[in-house]
Design goal:
By secondary structure, this protein is mainly alpha-helical. It is built from 20 helices and 2 strands.
């Protein structure tokens, strides 16, 4: 544990202890939280019984957590904590949060002592502060409307402070930027928390007006919220597994590219972490890495598996796979962020790539990330056209050599900081990016567009002038071939680095 993390945890624990002690001294416990069983029972015993009831309920709801992909653990224990806050005040919320969030993992010794302290402090401090805000907005004598409004505000503060504490600890532990960590909160977590706040207020109303036993009526709604969170995680995992299976099926067509997509995903993810991409961008990079070659389903085996140099026509077929892949994935709306990655992962930084000859910053950032990852994996693995793969030193040298030409230099700089080239001597930037290739590529793209338009016009004129029996072009063996929009990488710009 780093010194900065230790100091933060110590400060958070101290602040939580001070806040809880101050709330207990100044606010005490509101009698609304008490459970009355007999007329001769003392008020203090009733309050203690009420606190024990909400603590046990928090323990039960904390025992069934749902772990989200980002590592966040979500339970429905927020509801009894908020209910104790409304009924008993800040001190009640703090004590219920302190004891009620104890996990079995702590009792079994699976969590280090400082982890337990930070987990409890990260709930107690927000609960006490939010309880104080609630009492300022809606005192215990306030009407139900004001109390509902105050509960909503207090719930928002509780969630925000809890997220800030957890994000700060994660930032100090992983050295990730705080802004990236705080923005990575899953929408499913936020939506479930929004549903828990009004439910907590309803629990307090029936608890106080009817009886403590009415809280059993809310077991089903709480269970349904937890079940919804669990199903959300399961659906996401199933979606990811389906993508992995599809990528594996594509890689299986060529035994020498087995697990290529998985390795590209891992390399691209490591680059993304160095670049401090957001959680949504990281997800797009991971899924895009798995699916970037899905268009090779439409490439014939005699081209895909050919061990010799491809002809011009074969290269055009191979170069069509990014567009084919984007067309295959396009109907899946969930994968919309991955479409630009799939379509443009073979664009060159100087504009001589394919399929759209994009230049520099015109190429989507995540596609530039994937291009570097794809090229490094392809160069360091055997292929039908290259039995002996390059060493890591050689592959890094190629990336540096073509930075500013084929690859984004900043992406290459980020790749160098990953573990994939640990211990490899970095030659550094050998050539600074030059604007001349960009201008030339732009001119080439304009010429190609004009040429394609001329070819199409000539083809149409030839067809109109034909006196043969009309036959659909796709069935007419004599029909001229349609011009292809895909450039031949080997004939444009410098020597191409194969990228899988």
């Amino acid at each position: 544990m780093s010194r900065s993390l230790a100091l933060f945890i110590a400060g958070l624990v101290a602040a939580s202890a001070i806040a809880l002690a101050a709330a207990s001294f100044f606010y005490g416990f509101d009698s609304r939280v008490a459970i009355e069983i007999g007329s001769d029972m003392s008020p203090q015993f009733g309050i203690g019984l009420g606190l024990a009831f909400w603590t046990v309920l928090t323990l039960v709801t904390s025992a069934f957590p749902v772990r989200f992909p980002g590592g966040a653990i979500v339970t429905v224990s927020t509801t009894p904590i908020l209910a104790a806050m409304v009924l008993g005040g800040p001190a009640a919320a703090g004590w219920v949060a302190l004891i009620g969030t104890t996990e079995l993992r702590e009792l079994r010794g699976e969590i280090p002592w400082f982890g337990s302290l930070s987990n409890h402090a990260g709930v107690v401090f927000p609960a006490v502060v939010a309880g104080g805000v609630l009492r300022a907005i809606a005192p215990s004598t306030a009407g139900p409307v004001n109390e509902l409004f105050g509960t909503a505000v207090a719930a928002g503060i509780f969630f925000a402070l809890n997220a800030l504490c957890a994000s700060a600890i994660l930032t100090l532990r992983t050295h990730a930027p705080f802004g990236t960590v705080i923005r990575s909160s899953d929408r499913g977590i936020i939506s479930s928390f929004i549903a828990l706040a009004p439910l907590a207020w309803l629990m307090t109303q029936t608890y106080e007006r009817v009886g403590w036993w009415t809280t059993a009526l809310y077991a089903l709604p709480l269970y349904m919220i937890r079940l919804a969170n669990e199903r959300l995680v399961e659906m996401r995992e199933m979606f990811t597994q389906t993508i992995e299976a599809l990528a594996h099926a594509v890689d299986k067509r060529d035994p020498k590219t087995a697990n290529h997509s998985r390795r590209v995903k891992e390399i691209a993810s490591d680059i993304g972490r160095v670049m401090r991409l957001s959680s949504s961008e990281m997800e797009a990079v991971e899924w895009g890495g798995l699916l970037h070659d899905v268009g090779k389903i439409g490439v014939p085996d005699h081209v895909l598996l050919k061990p010799d140099r491809l002809t011009r026509e074969e290269r055009q077929l191979m170069n069509s796979h990014p567009v084919l892949g984007a067309e295959i994935i396009a109907p899946v709306k969930k994968l919309a962020p991955e479409l630009p990655i799939i379509r443009h992962h073979h664009e060159w930084y100087n504009g001589s790539g394919y399929p759209d000859r994009l230049l520099g910053e015109e190429i989507p950032k995540l596609a530039r990330v994937l291009h570097v990852a794809d090229a490094f994996e392809a160069m360091t693995a055997s292929r039908p056209y290259r039995v002996n793969p390059l060493t890591r030193e050689q592959a890094l040298g190629e990336l540096r050599k073509f930075a500013g030409i084929q690859f984004d230099p900043e992406i290459v700089d980020a790749f160098v900081k990953t573990g994939w080239v640990d211990g490899v001597q970095d030659p550094g930037r050998t050539v600074e990016p030059r604007p001349v290739p960009l201008i030339a590529a732009a001119a080439g793209r304009m010429v190609q567009t004009s040429t394609n338009a001329t070819n199409i016009a000539n083809t149409n004129a030839s067809n109109n002038a034909s006196t043969n029996t009309p036959t659909p072009p796709e069935n007419n063996a004599e029909a001229p071939a349609a011009p292809t929009p895909f450039p031949v990488a080997a004939e444009v710009g410098p020597r191409a680095i194969d990228a899988g």
